[in-house]
């Protein structure tokens, strides 16, 4: 049995976050979703993800 890598998805758009979560789960990753930076910091300290997908959009 292999350990699943944990990926934290930081995205404020629920539809996008759910889509990425589904793809990761179907490819044998453990995915955790959050919407804010402060929530991401809290989850990072408690779950120690292997990778963080931080999705930023800059508006001009």
Radius of gyration: 12 Å
Query: On the 0-100 scale, what is the average pLDDT?
Result: 92
The number of distinct β-strands equals 3
Terminal CA distance reads 48 Å
User: What percentage of the residues does DSSP assign to strands (E)?
Assistant: 15-25%
Largest sheet: 3 strands, parallel
Inertia-based shape: globular
How would you describe the oligomerization state of the chains in this entry? single chain
Low confidence ranges: none
Q: Please provide the ordered H/E string of secondary-structure elements.
A: EHEHE
Category by helix and strand content: alpha/beta
Helical segment count? 2
Which percent range fits the helix content? Answer: 40-55%
Strand order of the largest sheet: 2-1-3
What does this structure look like?
The structure is a single chain. With 60 residues, the protein is an alpha/beta fold. 40% of the residues lie in helices and 23% in strands. It is built from two helices and three strands. The protein has a three-stranded parallel beta sheet with strand order 2-1-3, sandwiched between helices. It is globular. The chain starts with 5 loop residues before the first strand and ends in a 6-residue tail after the last strand. The mean pLDDT is 92.
């Amino acid at each position: 049995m292999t350990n699943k890598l944990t990926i934290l998805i930081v995205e404020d758009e629920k539809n996008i976050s759910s889509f990425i979560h589904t793809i990761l789960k179907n490819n044998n990753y453990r995915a955790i979703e959050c919407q804010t930076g402060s929530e991401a910091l809290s989850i990072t300290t408690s779950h120690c993800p292997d990778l963080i997908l931080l999705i930023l959009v800059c508006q001009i």
